[in-house]
């Protein structure tokens, strides 16, 4: 059973949904990437939320600012997203913390970049770790040119064909029906987010990564179209977390950008949940 959320975030609100689990486990807070709303994490047959519930976790999936009915930012930036989500998670923690050992952020793609922003700064609730995927700092030139060719002040919606091109691996790595199944998770994306991911994010990444002070779980898809993927690139990304007490990082084989939507996504979900379940509790900071 899930409950709908409308969380206070400064002068606005952040929406999403929450499922409550067993005591003694972290509260997982899922942050979707660009062009996806909270339902990215709950696509039938490929649901991180369902796997988390079965594992006894409390889990929330949030609509980032400007997605669905969450209050948009006047200027969409990853730092602005982090500001809003820190406040929203503070409200969520007050509502859902009973029995939870702390918060683990689960960020996909741009949601991973935003999770890193959050983990690099003070927050008023106990953060245990971040599990991030499908984010890097080395984009193919064709992707950079494509995003830079669009005006910054509009939003666009990817077609199913574009989603297959950018978000999925070879046809044998996923069931083609998932593209339609995930349509309810699709939302327009502000072009400003696409521009930041191939510009400001790449510039800011080293300082943000170095300031992350909690354990990190990281996966980069083997069949990435939005980033240059290699084992060496994964190692270089992981090495940037110089302030993190531990980093678990690997190239995830047999998947494209939307890891959860591929055949191998089930194993990756369970890897993340196993890692999250073993994180030690932390005292509240405020």
CATH topology group:
Rossmann fold
Topology as a string of helices (H) and strands (E): EEEHEHEHEHEHHEHHEHEH
As a whole number of angstroms, the C-alpha radius of gyration is 17 Å
Q: Helix/strand/pairing class, anyone?
A: alpha/beta
Straight-line distance between termini: 30 Å
Tell me about this structure:
Helices cover 34% and strands 21% of the residues. With 286 residues, it is of the alpha/beta class. It has a single domain, classed as Alpha/Beta hydrolase fold, catalytic domain (Rossmann fold, 3-Layer(aba) Sandwich), CATH 3.40.50. The strands form two sheets. An eight-stranded mixed beta sheet has the order 1-2-4-3-5-6-9-10, with helices on both faces. A two-stranded antiparallel ribbon has the order 7-8. Strand 5, helix 3 and strand 6 form a beta-alpha-beta unit.
Tell me the layout of helices and strands.
Elements: E1 2-9, E2 12-19, E3 25-31, H1 48-54, E4 58-62, H2 78-96, E5 100-108, H3 110-119, E6 127-133, H4 141-148, E7 155-156, H5 160-167, H6 177-181, E8 189-190, H7 191-197, H8 200-211, E9 216-221, H9 231-239, E10 247-252, H10 265-277
Helix pairs in contact: 2-3, 3-8
Outline:
With 286 residues, this protein is an alpha/beta fold. The chain has helices spanning 48-54, 78-96, 110-119, 141-148, 160-167, 177-181, 191-197, 200-211, 231-239, 265-277; strands at 2-9, 12-19, 25-31, 58-62, 100-108, 127-133, 155-156, 189-190, 216-221, 247-252. Helix 2 packs across helix 3 and helix 3 (110-119) packs across helix 8 (200-211).
């Amino acid at each position: 059973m899930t409950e709908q959320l409308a969380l206070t975030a400064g002068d606005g609100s952040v929406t999403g949904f929450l499922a409550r689990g067993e005591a003694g486990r972290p509260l997982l807070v899922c942050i979707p990437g660009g062009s996806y709303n909270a339902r990215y994490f709950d696509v039938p047959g490929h649901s991180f939320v369902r796997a988390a519930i079965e594992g006894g976790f409390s889990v929330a999936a949030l609509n980032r600012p400007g997605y669905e009915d969450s209050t948009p930012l006047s200027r969409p930036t990853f730092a602005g997203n982090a500001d809003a989500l820190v406040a929203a998670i503070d409200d969520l923690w007050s509502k859902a913390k009973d029995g939870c050992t702390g918060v683990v952020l689960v960020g996909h793609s741009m949601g991973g970049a935003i999770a890193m922003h959050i983990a690099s700064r003070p927050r008023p609730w106990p953060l245990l770790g971040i599990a991030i995927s499908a984010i890097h700092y080395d984009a193919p030139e064709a992707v950079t040119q494509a995003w830079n060719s669009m005006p910054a002040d509009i939003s666009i919606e990817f077609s199913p064909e574009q989603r297959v091109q950018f978000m999925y691996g070879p046809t044998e790595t996923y069931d083609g029906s998932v593209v339609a199944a995930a349509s309810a998770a699709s939302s327009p994306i502000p072009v400003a987010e696409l521009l930041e991911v191939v510009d400001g994010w790449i510039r800011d990444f080293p300082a943000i990564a170095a300031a992350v002070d909690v354990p990190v779980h990281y996966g980069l898809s083997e069949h990435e179209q939005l980033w240059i993927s290699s084992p060496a690139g994964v190692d270089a990304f992981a090495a940037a977390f110089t302030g993190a007490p531990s980093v678990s990082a690997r190239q995830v084989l047999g998947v494209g950008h939307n890891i959860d939507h591929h055949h191998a996504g089930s194993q990756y979900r369970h890897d993340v949940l196993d890692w999250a379940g073993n994180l030690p509790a932390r005292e509240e900071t405020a």
